[in-house]
Amino acid sequence: MCYNYEGEPVSFLFSQDITTDPLEDARMLLYLEDLKRTDISTRPFEKCMYYYLLGERLEAQFWSLNAKKIIRIKFSDSAYRYTWNAASHVYKLYHARGIYNLLTVQNITANALLRLSNKNFEVLVEEAKSIRAVEINDILEFHAESVV
């Protein structure tokens, strides 16, 4: 529960996301570009890192009922659901892509990930896995060449 400066309880209403299905397809191009970035952004660190770290912690607990209880204690019901889902989506995407990519994103936010259709979210995850596989292959090839 949050309180204003007079000690009265206040609640937060999150504004409705204006993303619609036709815009989602257009935004997918931006999201896919974010996954390919390697230049570190100078803008402030995003909340996505916190969701990723929370997801990492929840993954260590196998996303169990006990893990859910820990989050439920800290948040209201609506904030709990948002936090749980945001941590899940951010962790799944950046576990596949690599946490370092969080330093470079410019368009992907936790809210954007939650607003995506399941199909488009899975497209992002598969693209993240593909990009990461290419990077790993490049590193292995470089290492193999340098050893010879």
Kindly list the characteristics that best describe this protein:
148 residues, mainly alpha, two-stranded antiparallel sheet, 6 helices, 65% helix, 3% strand, globular, 33333_t:CDS:1
Q: How does the SSE layout of this entry go?
A:
Elements: E1 2-3, E2 9-10, H1 21-36, H2 48-60, H3 65-74, H4 77-97, H5 110-115, H6 118-147
Antiparallel strand pairs: 1-2
How would you portray this structure in words?
This protein is mainly alpha-helical and 148 residues long. The protein has one domain (21-147). The chain has six helices and two strands; from the N terminus they run E-E-H-H-H-H-H-H. Strands 1-2 form a two-stranded antiparallel ribbon. Strand 1 (2-3) and strand 2 (9-10) form a beta hairpin. The radius of gyration is 18 Å and the shape is globular. This is 33333_t:CDS:1. It comes from Gigaspora margarita.
